[in-house]
Queue: 3 jobs
Job 1
Amino acid sequence: MNDTFLKACRGEAVDYTPVWIMRQAGRYMPEYRAVRGDVDFLTLCKTPELAAKVSLQPVDILGVDAAILFSDILIPVEAMGMGLHFSESKGPVFSEPIRSRAQFEKLIVPVPEDELSFVGETIKILRRELKVPLIGFSGAPFTLATYMIEGGGSKNFLYTKKMMYQNGALYKHLMEKITDTVTAYLRAQIRAGAQCVQIFDTWAGVLGPEDFKAYALPYVKTVIAALQGEGVPIIYFVNGCAGLLKEIKTSGAQVIGVDWKIDMAEAVRKVGKDYSVQGNLDPCALFMGQKGLAKKIQSVLKKGAKAKGHIFNLGHGVLPETPVENVKFLVDKVHELSRR
Amino acid sequence: MNDTFLKACRGEAVDYTPVWIMRQAGRYMPEYRAVRGDVDFLTLCKTPELAAKVSLQPVDILGVDAAILFSDILIPVEAMGMGLHFSESKGPVFSEPIRSRAQFEKLIVPVPEDELSFVGETIKILRRELKVPLIGFSGAPFTLATYMIEGGGSKNFLYTKKMMYQNGALYKHLMEKITDTVTAYLRAQIRAGAQCVQIFDTWAGVLGPEDFKAYALPYVKTVIAALQGEGVPIIYFVNGCAGLLKEIKTSGAQVIGVDWKIDMAEAVRKVGKDYSVQGNLDPCALFMGQKGLAKKIQSVLKKGAKAKGHIFNLGHGVLPETPVENVKFLVDKVHELSRR
């Protein structure tokens, strides 16, 4: 068992900097596309054998130091009772977004062992196969709320902010129901075998710090506090964290995920000595030549080394157009350059 | 002549905090929609009498402390020789994006007094009518380059970053041609009567600090250095500035525009005592009730007061759905709460 990743999460001494890659199981990889060719995306997420198969691919092919459950952040939202489909042009679409109390009332808090049992089964298969730690994950309450309220992706998140500002009671009730869902979902993942969980707050970066503190962070704190007794490290990743790190680091998470739009040295300074950091190479750097890419990797490693612990990652998910050989080069280079 | 805005740009004592609003002439205002009902967007930009008319509307209706030329950041790009149209669903579209040396070679550096003479004429009309200062503007070189290379808006700016990383010589030549265009364009605006210019870097926030410093900032510095002799204050606004302020403040601009995704107090600390700041209320705050809105305004004013000079503004453009009465309330409240 390679536990370098878990040691870095806890800030313990490691022989080299561990690395995994957000969306490491995905369309950039021909082996993934081969599996995906036969099934649609949601079926892939919900079929344990297939979800496990694609989760394992990057471990075998790239040699990353952690696997992550293959799934989608909207899977538990669908289980709350919202009809979900994926459109080629628009991405995820909820045909009936939550805008009223009546719509909210119809939402349930799913029991993970029932409505989401395929997730636990996937995790069990993975734990039997893996020689590296398995990361479970969920969307953060705010990010899930934006999809539920907007009905999909958004530019200005106006419906979400309108509910926050104009109908605070409904917003709070909705966030509490999502928080309960996320907590139970992550707890079930841990109890099924996930050795770490990451909470993805893809959209919290559209909030200013005061609003983040009032409307997003308290719910993340509730989730994390409820999971502390489970004994696994928690990673909290906010895309667009540059202006929010002072607040983010109070979340209770042991590891703070950092996107690429802030200098890693500044992020490490802001996070301080009590938390490990994860990040933060621009996913587009994987389109550089290997000489330029190596320089960028070295820069992130050098700055990350000042943190309590450092897990190398991209600052956001790997892009579908990315050349696999550069991802492989990245993983090898992180190991080579960081070996003590 | 109300010169409060210009005084604040220069960091001189003012009786109250001046305020204007990005996109203050726009679709949220019925008087604008009435003009726009008869003409398409590009015709409106290019017809001096009409462009001047809508530029004046927010000054008359809201009582803002500055007017801004009504135009679009892509107007000079079209004059470089790129066919531009606006699509209802996709926004601006260039049918032939710049991806090759041959395409680049066909671009010209337009002579503002010839190809863009309508801009100078609009400015001259405005200066005759206005009792507040007139702001001219341009997109920053990087932001204009993204539209030219991507062919419109983008999610990951992959074509732009690919050119940066894989074809550095072409990227540099393109940026230099855009820089020459922006410099001549802004100089012409100032010589026609603009009393301040703002450089909008809408997309530079997708670059990490190292890339911003290498691929965007040098060209902005060149523009600003070339304009310093013109004797008007320059505002440099980067959307997504939170991780970039250390670099941004070296641009040479007298005023640093700040979006809402960073605490204004932190932004003022980072900018330091040598530059004025502009910003930074979340445009969505205009959907709050007036009590909540007043509280947010007060918070921005209090933090902005620590800067060399503070110009109140939103952290990005006002949204089309915004209630006009709240924008009017905002302007009055900024004046009332800040009056010394």
Note: Chain B has 16 helices and nine strands.
Job 2
Amino acid sequence: MEFKVNSVELEKLLNKIIPAVPTRTPMPILENFLFDIKSGVLTIFATDLEISLKSSLPVTTEEEIAVVVPAKLLFEIVRSLKETDILFKVESNGKIHLLTDNGEYTISYLEAEEYPNVPTFPSEENKDEVVELELSGSGLKFAFDHTSFAMSKEEMRPAMMGTLLEFIEEGLRFVTTDGHRLVNLLMEGVGTDVHNQYIVPEKAVSVLSKVIDDQIVKVFLSKTHVSFILKDIELITRLIGQKYPDYKSVIPLENEYKMKVNTKELQNAIKRMMLFSTSNTRRVKFSVAENKLEISAEDLDMGTAGKENLYCEFDGEPLQIGFNAAYVNDILAHNTGEDELIFNLHSPTKAVIIRPVKQKENIDLMMLLMPVRLNN
Amino acid sequence: MEFKVNSVELEKLLNKIIPAVPTRTPMPILENFLFDIKSGVLTIFATDLEISLKSSLPVTTEEEIAVVVPAKLLFEIVRSLKETDILFKVESNGKIHLLTDNGEYTISYLEAEEYPNVPTFPSEENKDEVVELELSGSGLKFAFDHTSFAMSKEEMRPAMMGTLLEFIEEGLRFVTTDGHRLVNLLMEGVGTDVHNQYIVPEKAVSVLSKVIDDQIVKVFLSKTHVSFILKDIELITRLIGQKYPDYKSVIPLENEYKMKVNTKELQNAIKRMMLFSTSNTRRVKFSVAENKLEISAEDLDMGTAGKENLYCEFDGEPLQIGFNAAYVNDILAHNTGEDELIFNLHSPTKAVIIRPVKQKENIDLMMLLMPVRLNN
């Protein structure tokens, strides 16, 4: 059985699919691609049993076949070739020969039966319960880019290791939190009839962020899985089957003092303060007064200290509040597109709410950061 | 005591000196810079006791001082600042305050007495035995770039862990070898009266390769140290005090068959063959015939194999010879500036000699590669 593909087209495709191939796994079969050829279309699958990626391209053949081929090796071979046609000759002895003008490469394959089943959307089994919607690619990318950094890495609380997608009256809400900070992004005017919560695991979010472009994304949600269909690739992931914590109760409703600062200036200053803060606490002190923000840090063991003055607009009583500088930096690094941020403050012990001065159209973005105790 | 420097100028300087600061050392004092101010000039030193780097810049002060400051922290601070003047205020309590328009940063310093002595060239002690010469920066860089990769990493044979500089009648010879391959580069017309051998350790070669530019390099050689003086930086290194092995005896004198190949084409093919060769031997087979070079590799355990045909010019009897593909790739990767290479061959068991078709002016470059046994 033979089929022919262009090396550059195949490379592009494999490059998109390979993120689903696990690098270390107790199931070696997952280190392979499933190649499925039907009606002149080659569909390639990869999965780590949590997420699956799938994409297709036309090939020159009239036959049908499904084989399992070593993912990394095949990708390296295809990537190392200049643009050329590759003739795949699948032999019955478990070998595939890849022929180009100057070269011949032999790899082994396994039978498709050994590869795990990949769920499909919508299917006969799930078509009744599946919720379907369309999102703008740029909106979805914006939402993931601004929320994903606050997901927890603590395996003790699995629900927080994903991004909450919550359908409410006003639209679709994205929430992430690790207990120290929280991001809450509302995408207005996006809706379904069902007001449900879905938790998408970190891996799916991180892979999606890389492949989403400006095109419309079709989303299918079941109780256990979600499928994101992009122009030329489909990602299916398991959902995290846990209850998301009640994030609303930690959001303070009245933080009456507003501090407006330049994002870039604050980020540069915070990065310098991270050089001086104690490495285990990373504590940085904000001393806020009218028109002046002093940030400072010190490491008593190392005998180092730093402080800087920045311009800010502030309408409250002078206030000192401490933060983990790495968390402040995370927020700033994910808002470099915003010229200015507003910090809504109340007291040294109450969470601060941070918002961009200019919200993107149809987006309401809010970040919450817990303070840390100051010594004095 | 105070002095003032421009942050960008200081950053450039520290960036050149910091490669001599060891990252892990049992002597924490070496993780510092020595700042020495005399007559309005700040001279900065760093050393790992093998190599020392030293450079200067003018500063605004009339006083003299020598202090030891934490290298990594100071570099990170200076690098994180926008261009600004920095006022260093050295207090008697062991603290230095760095003042800018918006910020104040405090670091600790130690007394200069605690810092190891840095050798100077030429000095009263070594002026009689020191050999002095000038080399073109571009020539020296070319020599290091084409020879350094073949230095040994085996601590069992310390002499081979450096680059041999040998002054002979015809010029200055650079030799590196690890027992599997050898590079021998003659820089013609460069001379001293003394025909001596000096072995420069790997670290010095690697740091020099990064900082050498096209300007003349002044070299001072003593029996134990060598100093390279560039436009704005001086590197002093200990020499390896061992006898270099008799490299001439391994160079075959009559390899009568010549194979001419395109460097880039061969490199691309070798990289692909590395995907198929057994990972512990990396063996690749060259089957050479008139106008045709077939290279092939296989991994019996993985059931993979690859072979490719390249065009070559060859004037001998058909021949099969095996190499370690990683070593062939090293040679090709360090000769990407050469369009074509000549392989001088004799038999499957005799070392091959590789030279660029076009030698650079006043340079004679020769690379030797030992073959590996083929199975058949």
Note: Chain A has three domains: 2-114, 131-180+187-249, 255-369.
Job 3
Amino acid sequence: MQLSEDDLIATLFAPMAGPGGLGLKDDAALLVPPPGCELVLTKDALVASVHFFPEDPPDCIARKALRTNLSDLAAKGADPLGFLLAIALPAGIDADWLRVFAAGFGEDSKTYECPLLGGDTVKTPGPLMISVTALGSVPAGRMARRTGARPGDLIYVSGTIGDAALGLQARLDAASFTALSSLHRAHLLERYLLPRPRNALARAVRDHANGSMDVSDGLVGDLTKMLKVSGVGAQVQLAAVPLSDAAQAAIAARPALFETAVTGGDDYEILCTVPPEAALSFESAAGAAGVPVTRIGQATAGAGPQFIDLSGAGRVFARGSFSHF
Amino acid sequence: MQLSEDDLIATLFAPMAGPGGLGLKDDAALLVPPPGCELVLTKDALVASVHFFPEDPPDCIARKALRTNLSDLAAKGADPLGFLLAIALPAGIDADWLRVFAAGFGEDSKTYECPLLGGDTVKTPGPLMISVTALGSVPAGRMARRTGARPGDLIYVSGTIGDAALGLQARLDAASFTALSSLHRAHLLERYLLPRPRNALARAVRDHANGSMDVSDGLVGDLTKMLKVSGVGAQVQLAAVPLSDAAQAAIAARPALFETAVTGGDDYEILCTVPPEAALSFESAAGAAGVPVTRIGQATAGAGPQFIDLSGAGRVFARGSFSHF
């Protein structure tokens, strides 16, 4: 059964609209900013066959589209206020697919307390494209900037690094991952399919971090970007980079995959720098939020990152950053 | 010459970023809402070959993408605060095209005082797609709603109706418009190519209108939608619908084009309802803003619109509304 645009909006998307969405019956949404807050805005677009596999479960595609944006809010120390959604639908998409797709947005919208505010639905002769604009709030003056890293700051990452990049590799080249247990393979594949944005860490970030960004294009490249715009350098202990059991097993079987792990994309973890005197408070706040954080190095007065391996030698990565562009 | 994503952003888009865009160097934008204001948010997506011709001048494509969103803000009585932009670029787009495209955004961004705040640039194997999210502000409680029309309200439209729909027809079927003067044909084509959003009317709308929306999917269909969500009816004098000289000439040559004019899309005029006691103030404010407005009918306690022609007979339109979906 085909749905008209009006049916699609009324039956699938209106139920997840927040009060500001006005039932998705108006030209625009209305947002009353929380008193004393500033707004943080982010917009990430995803294209089928570029940012996800068209055959992925539709609810996972939807969740990924929202979660990549939620991850940006988390890294800025912002709490979600809502999102707008534009989808360009190719002809092959049917009502059943759309129901599951919308349900993915609906569930994450509840989980992350990020109601739908509005959007647009159009047809395309090309691939499915999803454009999400997410809005968050921070107390005035408290957005964590990418430019905020200072010499002496300790550098932290949340969770584990590289799982999604290894998951993508495992998906593209399953034969090379046969040494992995099915449990480890499943872990990596799932991390690629479904980011887990660290919104629980937002408050610890805005309260304690100087510089912050999310790791979406690879730890090495993203750290390099943050250092550059902050005008600082860094020493990073590669042995300290947190790896999951699955990533460790994959790298043990094929050591070259370490570079994939630290330069690949789609981590959606938080990379932030914290002044030493705030380190204990930050770690404690992260612990209370249930988000593991690991110190991987320290910012310096130099320029660019120095990556130091177990032997104490510097390491240079040929491919610093993954770019979806 | 190919531009990298970073070059593209730094050289073409960063110059039009507002202070909240943080030089387009962060993961997100920061917006400090004006004190006492609420935010109005809108998001319209455009796909090549669906919403515009891929061979259109790139600056016009950019302007149209921004202006369709600005039109939504104007209809809500909101003043622009800024916009976010996601573009999905197909392989054939080169740096020269992008420069002209970005210049279109840059100029309109100045004209409408709507700075770029952020966005995303991705590649696509499909057609060019542009997704704009525009933000505006209204004094608290003053957004003009589509649901606000009340029985007795006078119904106004800004500017002239049907030019863009006739322009699209003239483009698709030039042979049928040979009776038109080249000046008239150029007028219609230009109205299709480049909407002129009525942001100058925003204040008059928020100060005086009960119900308001922009006319993007055809006057007949859009009025029907507004009446439905407002729970009112209306009587509309078709002879009162404002037509440009060019539209009048086209319709004089082919009377069937009247239906195209009132049911076609892309007008980007404002349709609003004003209580009779505010009519003079509204007309005077519109005059001061330099925006022509025309009274075309009156809302009633009934349901749906009645369209009345010159002979006093009711007229029903087979195709109420144009849908891009």
Note: The radius of gyration of chain B is 20 Å.
